[in-house]
Amino acid sequence: MIFDFNNPDLLSSNDVIRQLEPTVIPRVSAIAKMALCERAAYNISFFGMESNDFSANGEIGNAVHRVTIKSVLEIINLSKTGKPIHKEYGIGFFEDNARADIDTNWKRFLLAKVDKPFDLLMDDLYTRADRLVDKLIADEEENKQSVFRPEFTIRNIHLPLEGRLDLIRIKIPSLSSSYISFENLQNLDSTEVQVTQIKTGRYKRPSAVWNLQADAETLLLMKAFNLQSPPEYIWQFSDKDSHRKKFNFSKVHQYIDRFIQLWRSEASPVITGYCPNCSLKEGCLEWAFAPSSKLTENEIIRRRSEFKLSKRIREEISYEDRWKVYVEIRNAEQRQAEGSSITNLTLDVSTVDLGNQS
Question: Are 28 and 161 spatial neighbours (Cβ–Cβ below 8 Å)?
Answer without folding.
Answer: yes
